[in-house]
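2024-03-11 09:14:02 DEBUG pipeline.ingest accepted 1 chain
2024-03-11 09:14:02 DEBUG pipeline.ingest length=514
2024-03-11 09:14:03 DEBUG pipeline.predict start
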Amino acid sequence: MSHVFWILILSLSILKATSLQAGSRTVLRLISDNNARTDGSDPKDYGVELNATNFDGVLKDTPATYAIVEFFAHWCPACRNYKPHYEKVARLFNGPDAVHPGIILKTRVDCALKINSDLCDKFSVGHYPMLFWGPPMKFSSGWKPNQEKRDIREIDDWRTAEHLLNWINKQIGSSYGLDDENFENELLPSNISDPGQIGQAVYDVEEATATAFDIILEHKMIKSKTRASLIKFLQLLVAHHPSRRCRKGSAEALVNFDELYPLDMWSSDKDAAATDNLKEVLHDFQICGKEVPRGYWMFCRGSKNETRGFSCGLWVLMHSLSVRIEDGESQFAFTSICDFIHNFFICEDCRQHFYEMCSRVTSPFKKARDFALWLWSAHNEVNERLMKEEASLKTGDPQFPKIIWPPKQLCPSCYPSQGPKDKGSNQIDWDKDEVFKFLTSYYGNKLVSLYNEKDLLANDRTKVTLDDVVASTNAVVVPVGAALAIAIASCVFGALACYWRSRQKNRKPRRSWN
């Protein structure tokens, strides 16, 4: 029995390891939990406390462009007195309610803890507190005072919140203030000024994917007539979602779809109970991992709370799917996206308008290029319609007005000649070969550039196509580690069952006291 017991422990360990997402990012989500106070007292810390076990992982996985690490000691009176200043600045950048999210991650390391001794030595910490600034990925190399060409810099003007924020503003050319509040930032960078900004949108694509499925569950939108369209869209995500963790989550949903939503689930005698139990069944299921949704937008963030956000992220997702498919998948991708928007996009006018554009397509797509250009043209049609509505109703985002895409600043070669500026997309003599090259680059390699830099796509370089994801929900490829763990666990539990039955057969009857 002892051998079986230890095998069981090993298999459970493997299952636990394969079921967990990369846990370092979940540390960042604890900020919102820590601040969720119900007693009316002051909120807890915004600065993320790190230690030697999660330091590299958290800094590697953050979507922030910069990081600040404060090395302190909890017994140090000066450190305790400085903490309120540090937290005033951290409030602006950390957590789902951050005023300026995705720019700077503010963290702290307690050098008084023995676990952090080597980490603090790595940064030559000679007094408390010491603050360092740099790209998050570069912190793994540490810091030496006499080192040349350092990516990590010691902050030399930090003693008050005002001084620290002024120092930050000088480094990145911003004008942030301690009194800034949500969506009052007038210095949001324009998407047309820097093509590299699309790299941040991969996080918004994850956010939009998670939000879409939260809406589906919240409004109990999975019905017998919509079931098939959701399966098709999940298959598309498994093969071509730009985020690896969303691909894995979509595969998990497909593997379990028949069990979660059996075909007879919506029979007349089961319909009411089935819909009532859907949210409860999938309460803990997160299609892009535990750390998504984060609660904020980066590339898709508007200057107003009600602008951009989810709709922007969903458009980026659809464009990214359109440039990742192959020719033989183009019609499948077209119908999957059209049916998904028609059945699950909850904005009625937008849903109907998008499906009307889909209905105007009379011939099946045979080339991926044709589908990508159709989606691009459809997006511009939507923008032209909304430009007129938002101009008359004054409901648009003043910093991100609807425009014909791509603008000349991003793709000059897309515009060999152009008519009057007030004309719409149809009046522009587009070079569609150049447009397709732009779309492929912008929503392809540039979109996942941050992921590639952070090596989040390591061991995932093999191209996957929809030919690998067959129509049956039971035929989706499961990650090898998870499949191995499931197989081992199944064998172990089977062995235990057999062992238990054999013991029961050989067991002597218990004497009766009667």
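2024-03-11 09:14:41 DEBUG pipeline.report Residues 357 and 378 are 7 Å apart (CA to CA).
2024-03-11 09:14:41 DEBUG pipeline.predict end
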